[in-house]
Design goal:
Number of strands: 0
Number of domains: 1
Structural class: mainly alpha
Radius of gyration: 22 Å
Strand content: under 5%
Order of helices and strands: HHHHHHHHHHHHHHHH
Oligomer: single chain
């Protein structure tokens, strides 16, 4: 393969070394070696244990506040687990409360996230009612584990398609980079919200199905993205940009806003202007890139240093990959999502930047596609 460079080649269609084998074929190709399968197994166990320990710490912290001599430790833990779910169910219930009258509140945009969370909460409630809160708590851990694991799998499929590599070493190194990024965003300020794992999976799956030009699977992922978070309305830009001027490339772009409107018709119909005004509103009382100067200097400085640690390596990888076919298209998608993050996420919370992970590792695959490192390419 002849390496290309320059602005023109960067905006050519994303070049993939393999293709046409379908999802099942790509999975068999990517995880053909025993090392790759072992990486998957270890990854699943590591993710599950990490989420399990995080959940235990949360429950223990709540239980510590209840141990005042009235309850035993076991009783306090059980009550803490029930309180944890009660708080979760309360948050989900609040997403379904519609108050179109009154002042514009930035957090009202969260009400567009009701559908997926309502289904998820219904499953937890059913399990809690029939098997107890402990079983429901384990299911909650498994839910997060499965989504992060699926994100890893889809990201590795993207990297194999772009780089043409499927050796065990390549999969292991790619998985290590994936977890290094996740660890940084997850523990740097101990902040984690409930929507990012699903959206990150949607982005990874969306890029893969866009590379494969599978419109129907992409639209199904689009529905999941819209039901999870209002930014799902922008999800169609992935297919639109990657498959520019191919048949039906424009459909996902218009389908996203239409699906968001359909899912939240009760919000949009009577007071359209009211809710459009809060769609891109940042979280209230939290610093963003657009008003950081109004907050304490020390907090802002720390936040920008965290962002720099995260974003400078991203810029370096994009710079290194520039000139490869499709780097410009993938870069445009990255810029769009980066703007959404800078606009909507507080600068002191880097966890939502997990969304960029599948895109950045796509650039990494472009960098190594012509390299002789990490063993042989796909035959």
């Amino acid at each position: 393969m002849t390496e290309k460079s320059g602005l023109h080649s960067s905006f050519e269609p994303i070049s993939t070394v393999i293709g046409g084998t379908g999802l099942g074929g790509d999975i068999r190709l990517t995880f053909a070696s025993k090392t790759s399968c072992l990486v998957l197994l270890v990854s699943f166990l590591a993710i599950f244990i990490a989420f399990f320990n995080s959940n235990v710490r949360t429950i223990d912290a709540l239980a510590a506040g209840l141990q005042n001599g009235t309850y035993s430790q076991a009783e306090a833990v059980d009550l803490a687990r029930q309180k944890h779910f009660k708080d979760f169910f309360g948050k989900v219930a609040s997403l379904n409360i519609r108050h179109p009258e009154g002042p514009v509140i930035a957090d009202e945009r969260h009400k567009m996230r009701w559908l997926y969370k309502t289904v998820e909460a219904s499953v937890y409630r059913y399990v809690a009612d029939h098997q107890g809160a402990k079983a429901a708590s384990m299911l909650q851990v498994l839910h997060s584990t499965v989504y992060l694991m699926l994100t890893l799998v889809m990201t590795l499929l993207i990297m194999t398609r772009i780089s043409g590599r499927n050796s065990g070493n390549f999969v292991a190194v790619s998985a290590a980079v994936f977890f290094a990024w996740f660890t940084f965003t997850n523990i740097i300020n101990f902040t984690r919200e409930e929507f990012t794992f699903v959206e990150t999976f949607c982005i990874a799956a969306g890029v893969y199905f866009s590379l494969d030009r599978r419109l129907i699977p992409f639209l199904l992922i689009l529905l999941l993205a819209v039901s999870n978070r209002e930014t799902g309305a922008l999800f169609g830009v992935i297919y639109f940009i990657i498959n520019w001027r191919t048949p039906w490339f424009w459909l996902p772009l218009i389908a996203g806003p239409i699906l968001l409107l359909a899912v939240n018709a009760d919000l949009f119909a009577p007071y359209f202007q009211h809710y459009v005004s809060v769609l891109l509103a940042p979280d209230k009382a939290k610093p963003t890139i657009f008003d950081f100067w109004t907050y304490p200097t020390l907090m802002v400085t720390k936040s920008f240093l965290q962002l720099a640690v995260l974003l400078i390596p991203i810029a370096a990888v994009i710079w290194k990959a520039w000139g490869q076919p499709g780097a410009g298209r993938l870069g445009l998608i990255t810029v769009i999502y980066l703007f959404v993050l800078l606009r909507g996420a507080p600068i002191n919370n880097v966890f939502p930047y997990l969304l960029l992970l599948p895109l950045v590792l796509g650039f990494s695959a472009m960098v190594v596609r012509n390299s002789d490192d990490l063993d042989a390419k796909v035959a």
